[in-house]
Amino acid sequence: MNKKINDLGLFLQAFLVIVMAICFIISLYIEQLTLLTNLLLGCVFFVMSHNNERIYKKKYLTLIYALAGVVALVYAFLGV
């Protein structure tokens, strides 16, 4: 029943999603954390892109996730 996570990419993705969710909830009350939340969102998209390429072999979703990561980072820094 208990399986050890051998893949660092999936562990990192799960960890970043949890941290991003916590930061998102806190950013509803503290507005300065929106930059951190958007940066974490961009990192989650890049890790998802890497996992899709390496584990799931879905090339089209890899490109979509990478572009979404770039958009999230641009949104974080420019505040568009």
Summarize the structure in words:
The structure is a single chain. This protein has 80 residues and is mainly α. It has a domain of 50 residues. It contains three helices and no strands. 18% of the residues are buried. The model has no long low-confidence stretch (mean pLDDT 87).
Low-confidence stretches: none
Work out the helix count: 3
The proportion of residues forming helix, as a percent range, comes to over 70%
Give the rounded overall mean pLDDT. Answer: 87
Shape: flat
Show the helix and strand layout:
Blueprint: H1 8-27, H2 34-56, H3 59-78
Question: TL;DR of this structure?
Answer:
The chain is mainly alpha-helical. Helix content is 79%, strand content 0%.
Key words describing this protein structure:
mainly alpha, about 80 residues
